């Protein structure tokens, strides 16, 4: 099957799932109420799924590693640490002064700022070694997650429930104003990604081959890392962390398309992310009746796939 037909097939499946999600259970008495509730959730799924797929594919390209995701930089841990710190200091009752809008902006700025400081310091001090940057990201991510766990053990169990809501991604209470801001930020990154599409195709061959073919590998890697950080930070601040979604959809995109062209991979990854999130949301709402969260299902499936990839890489 040609690449265009494969993309069209994924698009048809995604559109059908979106339509099914919108119209399931509608009748003449509830269609206006349910559509008003489902439309923002569907738009959020489209935006977050696309952002995570783009960020994960770009990150795997510049690291030339199929089992890594942007979460290795520690952004999820920073987000969780910040949310726990707010509850630890102010408590949920006094936290009402901090609206969802301000919380979103602060979370995005802190995660993006953390990434920029990390890049600036590490690239300057370590001769632009991206793998050393990833190692530092793992260490700092562990530190922030451990600090968050320590505070969670000290706070009241009732307060912990509020922290727990932030630990898992959820599309059930998406703020429409925040959603518009998040989409605007994501759209601003697209022209920069488009500028590097051809270079990314070459970078997928590896650093040495890309440099030999005339690609400014270090410069493009730094700029793509910033874009990855912004997309990951916005998606995480909007709905919460989803660790394995990017790993899952990007690797399935490679296996399904069998191509190196990012023009197709970016589209396929976004469509697969939408299919996974909409399909998962339908299962959560219609089968499990909201008894589990979507991120739990995604992380469970993604975790199994991650182990499969590790075993596959070991045997090759």
Automatic annotation (TrEMBL):
GO biological process entries: siderophore-iron import into cell
GO molecular function, a single term: transmembrane transporter activity
Membrane topology type: Multi-pass membrane protein
Superkingdom of origin organism: Bacteria
Entries under InterPro entries matching the protein: ABC_BtuC-like, ABC_transptr_permease_BtuC
Alphabetized UniProt keyword annotations: Cell membrane, Ion transport, Iron, Iron transport, Membrane, Transmembrane, Transmembrane helix, Transport
Subcellular locations according to the entry: Cell membrane
Spans through the membrane: 41-59, 71-90, 102-119, 131-155, 177-197, 224-252, 264-284, 291-311
Assigned GO CC terms: plasma membrane
SUPFAM superfamilies reported for this sequence: ABC transporter involved in vitamin B12 uptake, BtuC (SSF81345)
Name of the protein this chain belongs to: Iron ABC transporter permease
Organism: Culicoidibacter larvae
């Amino acid at each position: 099957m040609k690449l265009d037909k494969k993309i069209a097939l994924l698009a048809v499946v995604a559109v059908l799932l979106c339509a099914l999600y919108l119209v399931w259970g509608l009748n003449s008495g509830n269609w206006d109420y349910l559509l008003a509730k489902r439309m923002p959730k569907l738009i959020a799924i489209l935006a977050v799924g696309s952002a995570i797929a783009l960020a994960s594919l770009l990150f795997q390209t510049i690291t030339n590693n199929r089992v890594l995701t942007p979460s290795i930089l520690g952004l999820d841990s920073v987000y969780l640490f910040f949310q726990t710190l707010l509850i630890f200091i102010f408590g949920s009752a006094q936290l009402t002064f901090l609206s969802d809008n301000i919380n979103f902006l602060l979370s995005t700025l802190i995660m993006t700022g953390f990434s920029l400081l990390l890049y600036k310091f590490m690239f300057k001090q370590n001769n632009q070694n991206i793998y050393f940057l990833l190692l530092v990201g793992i260490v700092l991510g562990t530190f922030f997650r451990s600090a968050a766990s320590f505070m969670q053990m000290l706070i009241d169990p009732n307060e912990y429930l509020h922290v727990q809501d932030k630990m898992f991604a959820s599309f059930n209470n998406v703020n429409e104003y925040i959603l518009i801001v998040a989409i605007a930020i994501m759209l601003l990154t697209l022209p920069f990604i488009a500028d590097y599409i051809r270079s990314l195709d070459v970078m997928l061959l590896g650093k040495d081959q890309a440099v030999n073919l005339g690609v400014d590998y270090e410069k493009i890697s730094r700029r793509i890392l910033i874009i990855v950080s912004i997309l990951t930070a916005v998606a995480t601040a909007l709905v919460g962390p989803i660790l394995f979604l990017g790993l899952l959809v990007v690797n399935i995109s490679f296996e399904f398309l069998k191509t190196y062209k990012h023009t197709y991979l970016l589209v396929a990854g976004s469509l697969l992310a939408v299919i996974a999130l909409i399909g998962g949301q339908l299962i959560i709402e219609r089968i499990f009746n909201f008894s589990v969260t979507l991120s739990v299902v995604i992380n469970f499936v993604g975790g199994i796939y991650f182990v499969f990839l590790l075993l596959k890489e070991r045997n090759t």
